[in-house]
From TrEMBL:
<dbReference type="GO" id="GO:0044205">
    <property type="term" value="P:'de novo' UMP biosynthetic process"/>
</dbReference>
<keyword id="KW-0067">ATP-binding</keyword>
<keyword id="KW-0436">Ligase</keyword>
<comment type="pathway">
    <text>Amino-acid biosynthesis; L-arginine biosynthesis; carbamoyl phosphate from bicarbonate: step 1/1.</text>
</comment>
<feature type="region of interest" description="CPSase">
    <location>
        <begin position="1"/>
        <end position="170"/>
    </location>
</feature>
<keyword id="KW-0055">Arginine biosynthesis</keyword>
<dbReference type="InterPro" id="IPR036480">
    <property type="entry name" value="CarbP_synth_ssu_N_sf"/>
</dbReference>
<dbReference type="GO" id="GO:0005524">
    <property type="term" value="F:ATP binding"/>
</dbReference>
<comment type="similarity">
    <text>Belongs to the CarA family.</text>
</comment>
<feature type="active site">
    <location>
        <position position="331"/>
    </location>
</feature>
<comment type="pathway">
    <text>Pyrimidine metabolism; UMP biosynthesis via de novo pathway; (S)-dihydroorotate from bicarbonate: step 1/3.</text>
</comment>
<dbReference type="InterPro" id="IPR035686">
    <property type="entry name" value="CPSase_GATase1"/>
</dbReference>
<feature type="binding site">
    <location>
        <position position="250"/>
    </location>
    <ligand>
        <name>L-glutamine</name>
    </ligand>
</feature>
<keyword id="KW-0028">Amino-acid biosynthesis</keyword>
<dbReference type="InterPro" id="IPR006274">
    <property type="entry name" value="CarbamoylP_synth_ssu"/>
</dbReference>
<comment type="subunit">
    <text>Composed of two chains; the small (or glutamine) chain promotes the hydrolysis of glutamine to ammonia, which is used by the large (or ammonia) chain to synthesize carbamoyl phosphate. Tetramer of heterodimers (alpha,beta)4.</text>
</comment>
<feature type="binding site">
    <location>
        <position position="219"/>
    </location>
    <ligand>
        <name>L-glutamine</name>
    </ligand>
</feature>
Length: 368
């Protein structure tokens, strides 16, 4: 069934619809990963976005039971060059088409994704609509140009109530801004006694859980849309060791007085090189972000830049000069992508251990 992808700059692509037949709008972004489409489409940080993959053939190994990053995918729509109708893998349970129909998410194939990606790189991420062939393109373009997309996506994807994921190790409170399961998996693997809490949980409520450490998860949208989290971070900073990922990193920066900004087209892919400024080591990382911490805003804050992106020099890691708190813009939990940075979870737990055994002074001696 022919459907159209319409962009706010006036470009119209005609392709073949699959998955759900509903019409949708969203921010069109590209991901350069060659594999990992299941993890990408189920990453809650894509809430409200229409994702195109630059890799040309998608769906070959199907969708399986085990590789989801959330229970309910939050992406608005999916765009591919060619979709595999007959996946082949022993783990495969559904084809992309079957899965998207089941989850009511529209998708389109037969799109020149190289052209689309070049438009996004030139124009910056832009609003788009996936709709039926009968829709009037000029009308849709006008609507896209005149309306803002929905914000406050964190509220849509965060858990509504707190829940435990018990273990025998350190008590970690994981604040869910749209958490990828991978983060919880890494903590569970290390036997942490995790309590996942909603995005609006206050500092007092978190401290009442007597955590040994606090983790700030990834999540969708603009960090400035979540002021309650910034307030919470200020209330726990210096009291309990803190580790933040992606949106968690941006919220931490805002809480410490730095600023964030929207990037032209962001970083989304599985092979972004990041340099650790203290060791000079390079990690190949998985990334998905459209906002960044502004470098010029760091100067008068208590923050130290620990990592930078080698492609464009933007900030990829921060630590607090005084308190036990550090964050990264990339994804140490991978899923999908390389596991070069996976050791950050161990470093966090080492920090938690030091703090528990020796108090705040130990922080000064721990290398991040
Ligand atoms: N993966 C994330 O946490 C993304 C953070 C934020 N929504 C951004 O786009 O920059």
């Amino acid at each position: 069934m022919k459907r159209q992808l319409i962009l706010e700059d006036g470009t119209v692509f005609i392709g073949n619809g699959f998955g759900s037949e509903i019409n949708t709008v969203g921010e069109v972004v590209f991901n350069t990963g060659m594999t990992g489409y299941q993890e990408i489409l189920s990453d809650p940080s894509y809430c409200g976005q229409i994702v195109t993959l630059t890799y040309p053939l998608v769906g070959n190994y199907g969708i399986n039971r085990d590789d989801f990053e959330s229970i309910q995918p939050a992406i608005s729509a999916f765009i591919v060059k060619e979709v595999a109708d007959y996946p082949s893998n022993w783990r495969s349970d559904w084809s992309l088409d079957e899965y998207f129909k089941m989850k009511n998410i529209p998708a389109i194939s037969g799109i020149d994704t190289r052209k689309l990606t070049r438009i996004i790189r030139q124009y910056g991420t832009l609003k788009g609509a996936l709709c039926g062939i009968e829709s009037d393109a000029q009308e849709v373009i006008q609507t896209l140009q005149q309306n803002r997309l929905v914000t406050n996506q964190v509220k849509q994807v965060s858990t509504k109530t707190a829940y435990p994921s018990p273990g025998r190790g350190y008590r970690i409170v994981l604040v869910d801004f749209g958490m990828k399961h991978g983060i919880l998996r890494e903590l569970n693997k290390r036997d942490c006694d995790v309590i996942v809490v909603p995005y609006h949980t206050t500092a007092t409520e978190i401290l009442q859980l007597r955590p040994d450490g606090i983790m700030l998860s990834n999540g969708p949208g603009d960090p400035k849309d979540v002021p309650e989290a910034i307030e919470m971070i200020n209330g726990v900073l210096g009291k309990v060791p803190l580790f933040g990922i992606c949106l968690g990193h941006q919220l931490f920066a805002l809480a410490c007085g730095a600023d964030t900004d929207k990037m032209k087209f962001g970083h989304r892919g599985s092979n972004h090189p990041v340099k650790d400024l203290s060791t000079g080591k390079i990690a190949i990382t998985s990334q998905n972000h459209g906002f960044t911490v502004e470098e010029s805003s760091i100067e008068n804050t208590p923050l130290l830049v620990t990592h930078i992106a080698l492609n464009d020099g933007t900030i990829e890691g921060l630590k607090h000069r005084e308190f036990p708190a550090f964050t990264v813009q990339y994804h140490p939990e991978a899923s999908p992508g390389p596991e070069d940075a996976n050791g950050l979870f161990d470093q966090f737990l080492q920090l938690v251990k030091h703090e528990k055994e020796e108090g705040v002074s130990a922080w000064q001696n721990v290398q991040i």
